[in-house]
Amino acid sequence: MQTVANFDRIGEENAFAVLARANALADQGRDIINLGIGQPDFPTPEHIVEAAVKALHDGQHGYTAATGIPPLREAVAADLHRRFNAEVNPDNVMVVPGGKVTMFTAILMFGQPGVEIMYPDPGFPIYRSMIEFTGATPVPIPIREENGFAFSAEETLGLISDRTRLIIVNSPANPCGGVTPKAEIDALVAGLADWPEVAVMSDEIYDQMLYDGEKHVTLLDYPEIRDRLILLNGWSKTYAMTGWRLGWAVWPDALYDKARKLAVNAWSCVNTPAQFGALAALTGPQDAVAEMGAAFDARRRVVVELLNAMPGVSCVVPKGAFYAFPNISGTGWQAKKLASALLEDAGIATIGGPDFGVLGEGYIRISYANSEDNIRRALGRMKEFLER
């Protein structure tokens, strides 16, 4: 059966393939430690769960507005004001079923044959997958270890052409844990004045996971690009709500109704009781966010110390998110082959760097969204494997 050609261009997120293989090995009785999937190992805070359950008992079973219930959009705007002093109109906020939906919508909106969309490499694999799906040309923005895995404004601006329609930036970053300094973001925004038709999608899903005194710089702070800025965020990482499938975006006036129409056509609205849980997440106590952040910070230090003690491995200190991206080129292994061997032979799930882009060769991604005990056991096995 012949399908439309663009469906043949869809890639995937290999972390889910690794998760499936890890689960299959575990079902066979193997002791598998998963440092591959980007999912907090904490439960969703209880007050959030209770709010969703209460919504069900209260009869919140029907459709809502395609853009989300008004109190939740108002809460997103209020949260942005509380944390960044950012002025956001709730009418520019859209609640969607997961962060990927905003990526899909933005890339679909700008992507077509003959245009270019820029994205981070190494970066979240769905960026490139969706760009190729639309027929647009993907243009990688190099994310380099010598830059602390932050993008270079000069290098990024040098890649813009008359065909560029959208630039995707991500800080704190997946898979590298890099945080782009404010000076680089300032320079990027200043340079974009020469390219007024180029839109920007800023993926800030890890904006509350920063370490060593780093402060998040949101692109909402730059009024000169607000009329072409799409901000991506959500509840999955910050509130340990990955399975709830909840994200939100801030869209500029000129694009909001286009995104709303896609929502009406594609998913109608987001799960209603889940939205009430999301409302409780933003308006309720934030203790769990701080507690999870402190745990990730402690694990981060353990991961870096243990990785740097391994033969042929070096690891820069990640400044954000919950990933380390160690350089394994000194081991003599290719990244994906090493990741496969670690899973099959040592019982450790990791992700090979090339799954995040061409520039990912020579690296693997380690997620420290797992217990410190499991991390120590897994990296102990990895060291023994490399020493053999």
From TrEMBL:
The keyword Transport does not apply. Signal peptide: none annotated. Its EC number is 2.6.1.1. One of its GO terms (molecular function) is transaminase activity. It comes from the Bacteria. Its cofactor is pyridoxal 5'-phosphate. The keyword Cell membrane does not apply. CDD domains: AAT_like (cd00609). InterPro entries: Aminotransferase_I/II_large, AspAT/PAT-like, PyrdxlP-dep_Trfase, PyrdxlP-dep_Trfase_major, PyrdxlP-dep_Trfase_small. It catalyses: L-aspartate + 2-oxoglutarate = oxaloacetate + L-glutamate. Residues 31-381 form the Aminotransferase class I/classII large domain. Transmembrane segments: none annotated. Keywords: Aminotransferase, Pyridoxal phosphate, Transferase. Belongs to the class-I pyridoxal-phosphate-dependent aminotransferase family. This is aspartate transaminase. It comes from Arenibacterium halophilum.
